[in-house]
Amino acid sequence: MIRFGPAGLGGVKEAISNLELYHKLGLKACEIAFTYGAYIKESQKKEIEEIRKTAEKFDIKLSIHAHYWINLNSAEKKKIEESKKRILQCCRVGELLGAYAVVFHAGYYSKHKVTKGIPKYTEKNTDDNWKEESFQNIKREILELMGEIKKNKWKIKLAPETTGKNSVFGDQDEILRLSSETGCFFCTDFSHLLARSNGKAEYKEMVKKLVDFKELHCHFSGIEYNEKGERRHLITPIEELRKLLAVIPKNKEIVIINESPQPVEDSEKMLKTWEKLS
């Protein structure tokens, strides 16, 4: 089954009516945008319960996109700790909402090593070395976060996302390796991977790397990019969408979230295109 849905639930007051709209359109997923802050508070128990029950009633699978300002590979220990607090805040609220995953950009590449838990800069690293050190730093923090999730007996999954800029940690191999070595979930953003490769990557090759996974959480939309990678999200082009849907596996549980400037309209467009192809 493929579930399509928008990035964005809207404000707390509009959440129920928006879920009703998504249901009428045939959409079965929604990613709540905490990108500029977790606007649904744990104290809003009544509202959270209503959102959760409505999503369950309409069989709409919820996920959360955590804050943009997360960096698990910062040279400053304080920023790493603040990043983990934000992710855990999303996990706490997400668990109450019945969301199944928290998506986030894990961090930036940085030329520093870790000494007794405190990153320190070094100018002697080669590109390969500092990319590997960035990976190890982020892996360590992911494992710590997963320990907190286990301790709290939460069901929600951590889903680090493939990113669209070459300066940002998160090519497809890094994210899949992170999942393999920590047991975390992951988010494949096909548009980001296209942008990261300056348009050279093919959806068929991206999908090949996902063949062994039974469940996938994905993002897709139009995207503008240059040699440095992503610039901004665009309206979803039908031609690109058909290319992706032509190779997407049909024997998995898949969520595809649309992040275009008009995510609801484009989610419906994705669903209708898929129905025509099926």
How many separate domains make up the residues?
A: 1
Shape estimate: globular
- Largest β-sheet summary: 4 strands, parallel
Number of helices: 9
* Rg over alpha carbons: 18 Å
**Unreliable spans:** none
Strand order of the largest sheet: 1-12-9-8
Mean pLDDT: 94
The CATH H-level superfamily is: Divalent-metal-dependent TIM barrel enzymes
H-E string: EHEHEHEEEHEHEHHEEEHEH
Topology, number of strands: 12
The CATH architecture category equals Alpha-Beta Barrel
Question: How big a fraction of the residues is strand?
Answer: 15-25%
Structural class, by secondary structure, is alpha/beta
End-to-end CA span: 11 Å
Tell me which oligomeric state these chains represent. single chain
- What CATH calls the topology is TIM Barrel
General description of the model:
There is one protein chain. The protein is an alpha/beta fold and 278 residues long. It has a single domain (2-277), classed as Divalent-metal-dependent TIM barrel enzymes (TIM Barrel, Alpha-Beta Barrel). 43% of the residues lie in helices and 21% in strands. It has nine helices and twelve strands. The protein has helices at residues 15-25, 45-57, 77-97, 127-151, 172-182, 190-196, 203-208, 238-247, 263-277; strands spanning 2-6, 29-33, 61-65, 101-104, 112-115, 118-121, 157-160, 187-189, 215-220, 222-226, 229-234, 253-258. The strands form four sheets. It has a four-stranded parallel beta sheet. A four-stranded parallel beta sheet has the order 2-3-4-7, with helices on one face. Strand 10 (222-226) and strand 11 (229-234) form a beta hairpin. Helix 3 crosses helix 4. The chain is globular.
